[in-house]
Amino acid sequence: MTTVNTPVLHPGLTPAQRDCLDALPLTGHHVVSGPPGSGKSLIAAHRAVHLALTGRPTVLLSRSNLLRQLLRDTLQGLTVPGAPVEAATVHGWVLRHFGYGAPRTQDGWFDWTSLTGLAAEKLGEDDAATPHLVVDEGQDLPPGFYRLARIAAASVTVFADECQRLTETNSTLTEITTALGRSTSRAEVGGNHRNTREIAALAERFRTGGTRPEPPFRSGPLPVVRHYPGFKDLADDIATMATEQPRHRIGVIVNSLRTASDLMRRLERAGLAHEPQLYSSAAPSGRYRDLDLDRPGVVVVHRASAKGLDFDTVVIADAESDSATDPTAATLRMAYYVMITRARQRLLLGWQGSRLPRHLEGLRGWTQMR
């Protein structure tokens, strides 16, 4: 098996991203951390292409199906003939690897301890079929998954940011490294190539830990905090944005299925140039499951599925849904850190009700209050 990096053209990578990629050996386990906008998902796709050139099966994993779609589309422009890379969800990979009878715990998630035992029983049976695994947004998976991956994979490369842990079953960087073993290497990639300085500055108000990222070079308008009397006014505002910026991708991030369905119904009636899209994790397939994330227009998505995505404009549609939550709670702060950093150029935080939600107080100077 090849043990040194094979020269491959890497379009679109910055020098720092290329250096990070080229420094990763093709053997062993590695954990790469970086802030939002540093290009972790893009490097993960390139890393998977590197590993596929060794001749082993290579799988690029994510917990989110919507992120899987984005990674799949990224891979289409990178993969080398004869060295394919598969983009899959962790759920799909486990079912394919262990069958639909894979043991589960009472909460419905997989029994990682039992699966690790099953993987250990098969160890060495078919070495050539043992895959390389590359995991994006790895902080959203539990340590048990990494103990399984350590046995079930030839190598594991994890891209993660522990300031973006949104799931109940998550891991810190230390927990990931410990689960993969002592020889696991750690690397970092810096920079913010997504947000404007103004958006990044607002995100800093919600970051829960870690080293402060370097500010972006680009500047843009201040984020806006806006009160809406009702869903009609919010939908009208989103429709106006789509009309005024017909080439923009507008991500509308919601915390409520009621908000999502109401906005979608109104936007479908607005006669937009591009049909609005809605992602539902409950949909088995079709229109609400398979999205085109590259085309312009409005995409309505729940905050739980927003990880790893980016849009020209982001609308956080129902900030009032967090009014009863402690504004200092780490889970709330992480959620807003993730949502805010999805925006490339413009950001709007909308709310309804009679009183400004507490977590949006004290943002004058970082936002325009309307």
TrEMBL record:
Q: Which GO terms describe its cellular component?
A: cytosol
Top-level division of the source organism's lineage: Bacteria
Q: Name the GO terms of the biological process aspect.
A: recombinational repair
Q: Please name the InterPro entries in this protein's record.
A: DNA_helicase_UvrD/REP, P-loop_NTPase
Q: Which GO terms describe its molecular function?
A: 3'-5' DNA helicase activity; ATP binding; DNA binding
Tell me which PANTHER family the record gives.
Answer: DNA HELICASE IV (PTHR11070:SF17), UVRD / RECB / PCRA DNA HELICASE FAMILY MEMBER (PTHR11070)
Name the record gives this protein: Uncharacterized protein
- Tell me which species this is from: Streptomyces viridochromogenes (strain DSM 40736 / JCM 4977 / BCRC 1201 / Tue 494)
